[in-house]
Amino acid sequence: MMRDAAAWSALLPVAMVGTDRQSGPLPRWPGEIGAAIAALAQVERPDAGAGVDQAAADVLRAAGILAVCALAGARPQASLREAPEPAAPDTRPVADDPAVAQWFAWALRDGPDRLRQDFFLRFGRAGLRLPHALLPVALELARQSVALRPTIQPLLGERGVWLARQREDWAFAAGVVAADDHDPRHWDEGTLEQRKAFLAGERARDPAAARDRFVAALPELPAKERAELARGLSVGLGMADEPLLDQLRADRAQDVRAVALELLLRLPDAAHPRRAGERIAALMSRGTLLTGRRWVIEPPAAAADDWKADQIEPTTGIANMGQRAWWLYQLARQVPLAWWTAHTGLAPKQLAAWADGSEWAEPLWMAWRDVLRRAPDRAWAEALLDDWAGNTGPRAVLGDRELVLWVVSPEVRERYFEAQLKSADAPLVTNVFSIVTSCRPGETVSPRLSALVIQRVKQVLALDTTAGNPAAHHPTLHAQDAVARTLPHLCCVLPLALLADFNDWPAPPAESAAVGRARHEGRQIIQARRALDSHLP
Question: Is 0.90 topped by the overall pTM?
Answer without folding.
Answer: no
